[in-house]
Amino acid sequence: MVSHDDSELSRDLGVFEVFTVTAGTMIGAGIFVLPGPAAEGAGSAAAVSFGIAGLIALVATMCAVELSTAMPQSGGSYYFTSRAMGPLVGAVVGFGAWISLIFKGSFALVGLAWYITEFLDVPVLGVAIGGGFVLTIINWVGAEESGQLQNAVVVGLVGILAIFSGGGVLAADPANWSTAATSGVEGIISTTGLVFISYLGIVKATAVAEEVEDPGRTLPRAMFGAVIFVTLLYILVMLIVTGVMSTDEIAQSTAPVADAGGLFLGSIGGAVITIAGILATVSTANAAVLTSSRFPFAMARDNLLSSAFERSSPRFGTPARSIWLTGGVMVALVFVLDVEGLAKLGGTFGILVFALLNITVVILRTAQPEWYDPDYRTPFSPVLPLVGAAAALALIPFMGLLSQVTAVGFIVLGVVWYFVQTRVGDPVQPDHDIRDQILGAQYRQSIDKKEGQIGDDSPIGKHVLAETIEGTTSPHLVTVMRAFADRLDADLDVLTVTEVPSQLPLSEAEHDVDDDWQEQIEHKLALRDHAVVFDHVRTHDRTDALLKSVNDQTELVLVDWLDPIRKRHLRESHVDEILRSEFPVRLAVLKHRGTGEIGDIIVATETGPFDRAEVGVADTVATATGASLTLVKAIPEDASEAAENSAREYLADMTDLLSSPAETELIRTNDIETALVTRANRADLLVMGAPAHPDRYREFFGQTTDYVAAETDTSVLVVKEPGEQVPLARRLWRRIRRLSS
């Protein structure tokens, strides 16, 4: 984030100013234009459509306020989404929100000209250009001056609408409200999508959050009040219009509110509503300039636009260049575009912004980055934000094909602009993206899952089943067996399997286990409080024999891995089979190398969070042997700072859960396998986790694990959690192979 002194904005806006800015972005075309088409689509039930749209908007406002109190920075929806999902999404949202507000402002300028020409014989184009120029100057002078103008405009507008509402309530005929939606529920929903355009200015008011006094208190009060007030006003106006006019009359009117006012206010009614229309269009255009100009300012601070747009005016403390750019584009659109149509098209992108804001809250709440500490929190999260996002997105199909295509065009334009800036400009901010936030969320979920499961010294089972080969028991296997028995307070079941060729009956296979070897094992284990039970099994299928030896008392299966590791050797081997089988308990496979004691243990993973299995197993061995323990994590060399911080925080949190003291080590590398091999060669034991979903076409139970286990010079302990099924294709292949043998 840029921190230059000339990019700081003064905090001048209070509750009333923010209320009027928020309300001013909504009180405009929504009241003076939309009642006609809304009544045509839903009849008197159009008031319900306004209410539904208001509820959806209120949820988005809650999310916007939470984000604003956590990040009270200029830029609004752009700043929020870029910090949660990265600069690419931020560029799309910032560009689209900026353009959509400019469209709305241009439309308001034309509307202003239309209303003024009701009193004065002046050119419409000249009034629109002049109005845009005046509003740009007012916003350049300062947010406080703009806020004062907004106060006066909204107060005057509300006063006139109060007169309209007071007279209309008395004049409305309830019998007219019996004309429900002409097309039923579908008509109400479709009309909700139409009138939702009126609410798009709500979250845009958060673009001035950096200029708000005490945002933790000011924003919730002002913005919630504005949403509720304007929603009730829309409903009331809609009920009055449909209460004094028939649906056919409303559909044929180009100014239904003015015509309705004339029916119960007499000759003065038209003039009063015309004045209200002038105030409404001024309010909308002014709020559009004030809020939309902050998007280029915030994007420039992140190097997505020229740095010229981030500099504040030394005289007025406002983002001068950004304001003049916004005002200039707004006036230019009056010349060349059908602004009313483009304002509606831009509204579709505004709906996407609403949905993204809701999703942003869910992402940040889940990831819990250190800097995210909002003063206000959306209730019932994540359910309420997700429901709000889904409801907003459900309106897009009712906005028309042209609007949908235009929204896609905005997205493409934002993506192209982002990639151009990353190629020709300075590094953009932030340096993380949504993948980093999701990874951070996974880390925290992983830690939450591990709490109470790692480092628990209480007994968790009764028996540990160890499969070994007669006469070849490695020293490290004995050490691990003893560690599990001590730590888990379990007896040991030592299984020796004699695999008999399929063509030979089991009864003809004569082989007895050496009693001296069993005594040596018992002596090496030196267990005082736990029994050691030996069992010998003759079988045609070694893997099935091991599976059948697991019973209700078995808590862990330990396998001695004596087979050599070479290319394609592991596929269909015993180790391959058992790691791909559905074991009901935790499984650990030891590949022994060397004869020394275990004094240095490392736990390694690739890019995701550690599984509970390998960390818990390594902690068990380290606690029983007194070996040093290091948690090692490899991340890509170009990983963002946010990703690195999340990884470091995760490793630190992990050490707090362990029984044995542990160090952490983070490795930046683009060759993860080689880096893990190099680090493992300096230890006595490497503990790794088997992936949850093995790939049939990889040589073993995971590409990284396979390579590291084969290339390292140290002993390797591969751990797998229970319940991880072998894929269906793999099970079928096993059956076919057995039938053919």
UniProtKB/TrEMBL annotation:
Transmembrane segments: 12-34, 46-67, 88-116, 122-141, 153-172, 184-202, 223-244, 264-291, 322-339, 345-364, 376-396
CDD domains tied to this protein: USP-like
GO CC terms: membrane
Keyword RNA-binding: no
Gene3D superfamilies xrefs: 3.40.50.12370, Amino acid/polyamine transporter I
Pfam families: AA_permease_2, Usp
UniProt KW keywords: Membrane, Transmembrane, Transmembrane helix
Primary location class: membrane
Subcellular location: Membrane
UspA domain residues: 618-720
Record-linked InterPro entries: AA/rel_permease1, AminoAcid_Transporter, UspA
SUPFAM superfamilies for the chain: Adenine nucleotide alpha hydrolases-like
Topology term for the membrane: Multi-pass membrane protein
Protein's name according to its UniProt entry: Amino acid permease
Organism: Halovenus rubra
